[in-house]
Amino acid sequence: MSIASNTPTGWRDWFKPFARLGYGARGAVYLLLAFFALSAALTTGVGGDAEDAVRFITQSTASAILTPLLMISLAGYCSWRIVQAVFDTDDHGFTPKGLAVRSGLIGSAATYGFLLLYTFSIWWGANLASGGGSSDGFASTAAAFIGAGPVSLIIGSVFVIVGVAHIWKAIARKYRKYIDASEAIMKWIDIAAIGGLCARGVIFLIIAFLFLRRGFAGQQEDASLSDALGFIAGLPFGSFLLGATGVGFLLFSIYSFSEAVWRRVNVDIG
Fold first, then answer.
1. pLDDT at site 269
2. 243, 38 contact by CB (below 8 A)
3. What count of other Cβ atoms lies within 10 Å of the Cβ of residue 185?
4. Residue 165: pLDDT over 70
5. How far is residue 31's CA from residue 156's CA, in Å, rounded to a whole number?
6. What is the 3-state secondary structure (H, E, C) of the chain?
7. What is the pLDDT of residue 68?
8. Alpha-carbon dihedral 180, 72, 88, 179, rounded to 10 degrees
9. Given pLDDT bands bounded at 50, 70 and 90, which one contains residue 225?
């Protein structure tokens, strides 16, 4: 296709790789979560959550490079999700189903925006020179807000919808229409996408259950990814199920990296 000479397309030139970096960041986070879950399956622990993955990156010896890169990548992913939702780049439309999908995209942007702010809080605390500057202030404030009963019910309901949507997306292979890859490559992406999306969907449903239990019964326990992994570990054959979850996270990580390369990033929005 020819490039329009007078149309200012400069921002598109940098936004596409910016968005792809975001998929890469999601892949990196889930790769670490897979490591945590598989390690826990082989020991007595219950793994870790996305904040633990971020902490692992920010406290590594290469954190001076990795942490800013992670923040930039997460910002790219959040920005892309917002662009997808607001400008309807994937043509979901204004039907109830389309609006639900677009709302889910906003929810995804909010989730990874939280992770971005959490990463920044750790990075900022580490750079406040020596001493014990707490990096948990932001997380504590957010946890207090989320702990409110009505908020827990709303969040739990959202997680139910998102969890079911992930599993349906995997079973119906809805992800295929957004990926530009040869059929030979798609065969391998199918394996990663179906396994990864189903694993993520199940985790979201477990988190939804924990949130709803908190909201209805006034339970004060946390309802995070780490708690969901702990719930799985406490089931019969918990170690096996935790290992299967770790494999699912690994597949979702591979799926995310494949999206970083082959996902159609449509920014022709105006």
1. 56
2. yes
3. 14
4. yes
5. 25
6. CCCCCCCCCHHHHHHHHHHHHHHHHHHHHHHHHHHHHHHHHHCCCCCCCHHHHHHHHHCCCCHHHHHHHHHHHHHHHHHHHHHHHHHCCCCCCCCHHHHHHHHHHHHHHHHHHHHHHHHHHHHHHHCCCCCCCCCCHHHHHHHHHHCCHHHHHHHHHHHHHHHHHHHHHHHCCHHHHHECCCHHHHHHHHHHHHHHHHHHHHHHHHHHHHHHHHHHHCCCCCCCHHHHHHHHHCCCCHHHHHHHHHHHHHHHHHHHHHHHHHECCCCCCC
7. 82
8. 10
9. confident
Model confidence pLDDT, tens digit, residues 118-143: 787 777 765 554 444 454 555 555 55
User: Of the segments 72-86, 146-160, 202-216, which one has the largest average pLDDT value?
Assistant: 72-86
pLDDT exceeds 70 at position 151: no
Give 247's contacts (C-beta < 8 A, 6+ positions apart). 34, 38, 195, 199
Q: Which two tokens stand for residue 260?
A: 């970083």
**Residue whose tokens read 């599993």:** 167
Report which of residues 138 and 155 the model is more confident about: 155
Angle between helices 149-171 and 183-217 (to 10 degrees): 160
Cα distance between residue 250 and residue 195, in whole Å: 9
Token pair, residue 155, equals: 């969040």
* Inter-residue contact 57 to 67 (CB < 8 Å): yes
By CB atoms closer than 10 A (0-12, 13-18, 19+), residue 91 is: exposed
Contact 32, 56 (CB under 8 A): yes
Q: Give which of 182, 199, 202, 205 is closest to 256, Cα–Cα.
A: 199
Q: How is residue 245 written in tokens? A: 């979850």
Compute the mean pLDDT over every residue in the chain, rounded to the nearest whole number.
80
